[in-house]
Design goal:
Elements lengths: L2 E9 L4 H11 L3 E10 L2 E9 L7 H15 L1 E7 H7 L3
Antiparallel strand pairs: 1-3, 1-4, 2-3
Length: 90
């Protein structure tokens, strides 16, 4: 299994989760875990996804999600699990 961490941050608007999840489903990316909160109108979501079935490279997926986020007014970032783990080990 190849896990990726996806974070989404920005002003809350209708359809953020739907648009991100639609993208993932269309690319055969399975959501393993998801957490989202809204604090004073600001949206924050963290997802752990399995990218082992997608034909997209990590770079392409990351760029496409970044562009999707720009289109809906949020920031979307992707990190491979092993990079995320190493960055947050301290």
């Amino acid at each position: 299994m190849k896990k990726t961490i996806i974070t989404v941050v920005g002003k809350d608007t209708v359809g953020i989760i739907a648009k991100v999840c639609t993208y993932l489903a269309e690319k055969d990316i399975n959501i393993l875990d998801i957490s989202q909160t809204i604090v004073q109108g600001y949206f924050n979501m963290m997802m752990v996804v399995d990218t082992s079935q997608t034909k997209k490279s990590h770079g392409d997926m990351s760029e496409e999600l970044k562009a999707l986020g720009e289109g809906i007014g949020v920031i979307i970032k992707c990190q491979r699990e092993e990079i995320f783990e190493k960055m947050h080990r301290i």
